[in-house]
Each structure stands twice: as structure tokens, then as C-alpha cells.
Amino acid sequence: SYELTQSPSVSVSPGQTVSITCSGEKLGDKYVCWYQQKPGQSPVLVIYKDTKRPSGIPERFSGSNSGNTATLTISGTQSMDEADYYCQTWDSSTVFFGGGTKLTVL
Amino acid sequence: QVQLQESGPGLVKPSETLSLTCAVSGYYISSGYYWGWIRQPPGKGLEWIGYMYHTGNTDYNPSLKSRVTISVDTSKNQFSLRLRSVTAADTAIYYCARREAYCTGGSCNSVWFDPWGQGTLVTVSS
To answer: Residue B114 and residue B41: Cα distance in Å, rounded?
Structure first.
């Protein structure tokens, strides 16, 4: 099995930059994607293949992955970005999700 | 635009079988992609259940593999989930989703899910 670890919560002020991390053994050797889930809604893909943004996702969302840590960065955070964020990877034909990080925009 | 919609009973008794269907619109399942299920217990994180290609290839979460069957009905453009011998721990919102992948040289090294259905809450209780 493989474990992805995320901090339970992070907070940011509007307009600031926030980083949400996801750690796992040699995670940089795998591809990571990120989902945003707002209360009562389905998850939405915001980053795939470490750094790629799907169409319709704002440029303020970016991703990186190196070593044991993948990072989702939101620049110029807006109140609408308040949500839970989940990382996900794939290894040996198995999908693994991180536990999720609750982002609060204060 | 691809859309997915889950349907099925919202209440299942312990030890019985949970059955859900995901109707796909805007894309023919037989044209490609894997189609899968993910669940989320109330207030908790996401758990992958499994996915299936229209030709029958499947991958399941090892922790659920003994109880799960995913099947595809291309004539109805839908796919289904069956989870046997359920307990209260199987209470969750169940999502269906299309699996996308990055594959090179005949092997894949990245998968992700997009889009997702709206989800359906299934409660296991007598």
C-alpha cells in the first residue's frame, strides 16, 4: 500500500498565496493530481500530471512535485477558493488519495 | 460536454448488496476511457473503489476487491457498481467519474478523474 499525507487544515488571507502539501515516499517519481471540493459539491479536478491545469481552472492554481512532496499553490487566493483539497496519485494500478486539507480564507 | 448521474437506493440493509448505476451523457462509453467509482463517508475523505473499461478490463481497490463488481452496459450507455455484504462502514456518498490517463509506450503512469457525477448518499442501516 501507499500513503499520502496532507495537513488537515490551512488558512490564508484574501489576496495572499497559500501552499497545500501532499507527502509520500518518493512521490516525485509519480504523477500527482489535485481536486477541489466545496461543501455539498462533487470534487473538481484543478491540477493533473503534477502541473497541468484543466480548461476552465484559473491560472492562480499551480502545482509542483519533487522529492517526497507535491504542492498545490494558489496565488492571489479568493474567498471562492475556500474548500477541501485532495491530492491523488496512482501506483501499481491502484489509486491513492490523500486525507484532504481544509483551506480557510480568513 | 460529458455528464454523469448516479442513481440507486439510498438505504441498504446490513449484509445485503448495494447497487448503483451511473448514466453517462455526452459521450459513448464504448468509445473509450475507463469509468469508475469513488466514495466518501460523511465528513471524511475520498476512497477509490474501482474502474472498468468497456471491453471488461477492471481494476479494484485491493481492500474492497472481494466484495466489488463494476460492470458496463454500452447499450444503455451506463455502468454499475455492486458492493456485497455491506456494513455501516459502507455508508458514504458514492460518486461515479470518468478516468483519464497519461499513457506512453503501452503503459500508463498517471490517472485522474474528470468529470465526476453529483454523488448519491447510500446509508447502510436496518
So the answer is: 20
